[in-house]
Amino acid sequence: MAEAMLSRLLANGYGANQVIVSARSPERQAYLHSTYGVTVASNSDVAAAHTVILAVKPQVFSEIESELADSSVVQHPGTVLSIMAGIPSARLRRLFPQRLTFRAMPNTPAQVGAGVIALATDSAATEAEVVAVKELLSVLGEVVVLRENQMDAVTALSGSGPAFIALIVEALCDAGVAVGLSRSLTQTLVYGTIAGTVKLLDEREIHPAQLKDAVTSPAGTTIAGIEVLETAGVRGTLIQTVKAAYQRAQALN
Ligand SMILES: NC(=O)C1=CN([C@@H]2O[C@H](COP(=O)(O)OP(=O)(O)OC[C@H]3O[C@@H](n4cnc5c(N)ncnc54)[C@H](OP(=O)(O)O)[C@@H]3O)[C@@H](O)[C@H]2O)C=CC1
Ligand SMILES: O=C(O)[C@@H]1CCC=N1
């Protein structure tokens, strides 16, 4: 995710000289420097920047936290923006008491600027400070401002969502192959069907049930398929899937 943010920032007018990055392995550090031309520095150096973006795994954050707590940089003013799942802003605020604290939850379509990014703002931030963070995140896609107590739910739905959708896409492609279509044709049909369905629902503001009913002819093919989905409990399975991801986000906290 950090690399997605980095590449999108550079592609959208931010200069390589405005960004410094940190990574753990020397291989990764060399890759980031040679690919993007950015300065690679220690966590402490990065944490001295005006805007600090925290994008390590939540489990790794404890190591960074103790490393940073020992350095004076945590006293610097500015902004800290975390994309880590399950780490509350209160914990970030304890580490960076002088900084405004924002939490965001992007998702992987951010790599192509098509992400949905949930943002919980700091109540002490001015309108201009909120706008600055929104502008930063807008290089990744659509920014939605919400309350921090909604962040674990967002993590489960849109943060993890691309993996759930990808699994469904893969299964549908396999289904196309199972009924005799080539892999490449199947991919074109499945990608187009999903993108087109979402576009139709969105642009015409149709309820999904309305669209399902419109496709479903009496004694036709679609209702035969719908019966299988309902018998398998796909609706309940998807609800349980998101609830499991939500509970995991809460546990990471
Ligand atoms: N993946 C996703 O779809 C999403 C992830 N997130 C959140 O983003 C965060 C990162 O996830 P993701 O990008 O998938 O994870 P990755 O493992 O891909 O990236 C984590 C990065 O942290 C670096 N890192 C690890 N340890 C340290 C350290 N001690 N000091 C400095 N850098 C370090 C790694 O460097 P190295 O490679 O050298 O180890 C790596 O570049 C998580 O908190 C996750 O919750 C949020 C939304 C979506
Ligand atoms: O799986 C995870 O924990 C992270 C958070 C959202 C997407 N990936």
TrEMBL record:
**What's its EC?**
1.5.1.2
GO cellular component terms given for this protein: cytoplasm
Q: Give the pathway listed in the UniProt entry for this protein.
A: Amino-acid biosynthesis; L-proline biosynthesis; L-proline from L-glutamate 5-semialdehyde: step 1/1
Reaction(s) catalysed by this chain's protein = L-proline + NAD(+) = (S)-1-pyrroline-5-carboxylate + NADH + 2 H(+); L-proline + NADP(+) = (S)-1-pyrroline-5-carboxylate + NADPH + 2 H(+)
Where does the Pyrroline-5-carboxylate reductase catalytic N-terminal domain lie? 1-86
Q: Tell me which domain of life the UniProt entry assigns to the organism this sequence originates from.
A: Bacteria
Name the residues that span the membrane.
none
Q: Which Pfam families match?
A: F420_oxidored, P5CR_dimer
Q: Where is this protein localized, as stated in its record?
A: Cytoplasm
Q: What is its main location?
A: cytoplasm
GO BP annotation list: L-proline biosynthetic process
Residue ranges annotated for the Pyrroline-5-carboxylate reductase dimerisation domain, each copy included? 148-251
Q: Which InterPro entries match?
A: 6-PGluconate_DH-like_C_sf, NAD(P)-bd_dom_sf, P5C_Rdtase_cat_N, P5CR-like_CS, P5CR_dimer, Pyrroline-COOH_reductase
NCBIfam families reported in the protein's UniProt record: proC
HAMAP family noted in UniProt: P5C_reductase (MF_01925)
State the similarity comment: Belongs to the pyrroline-5-carboxylate reductase family.
Q: Any idea what this protein is called?
A: Pyrroline-5-carboxylate reductase
